[in-house]
Amino acid sequence: MDIKTASIFVEDQSKALAFYTDILGFRKVKDIDLGEFRWLTVSTDGSGETELLLEPNAHPAAKTYQEAIYADGIPTTLFHSEDIHEEYRRLTAKGVSFKDKPLENGGVWIAIFDDDCGNWIQLVQV
Q1: What is the rounded distance in angstroms from the CA atom of residue 65 to the CA atom of residue 58?
Q2: In the chain, where the domains are located
Q3: What is the pLDDT along the chain (126 residues), one digit of tens a residue?
Q4: Pairing state between β 51-56 and 5-10
Q5: What pLDDT does 25 receive?
Q6: Cα distance between residue 83 and residue 106, in whole Å
Q7: 93-113: string of b/e by CB count within 10 Å (b at 16+)?
Q8: CATH H-level superfamily of 5-125
């Protein structure tokens, strides 16, 4: 068993695709028209080995969940960085909003940013 696809709720799939590709640097893997929505995935290297599904928050429960954890400041997911300070500088220069500068806690560096699609994302360097 392994993880092939993980999902994250987003308010707008097109806006999320632009953020995750243009700002974060991920690559689009799949973009399948399903009618009202799309099966839309990205990955860090474009290989599709592990994909992040940009899932529309169209279901009322999904929207409520997303809004509640965002309001409480809880990250939806986390991404790993080899150099969190450089990533912070790069993303800040692109206009990404962080809660704070990277902070060290028990040997782990953490920074939390807003993906502008309804989610806080935690960036971690171990």
Answers
A1: 11
A2: 5-125
A3: 999 999 999 999 999 999 999 999 999 999 999 999 999 999 998 777 899 999 999 999 999 999 999 999 999 999 999 999 999 999 999 999 999 999 999 999 999 999 999 999 999 999
A4: parallel
A5: 96
A6: 17
A7: eeebebeeebeeeeeebbbbb
A8: 2,3-Dihydroxybiphenyl 1,2-Dioxygenase, domain 1 (3.10.180.10)
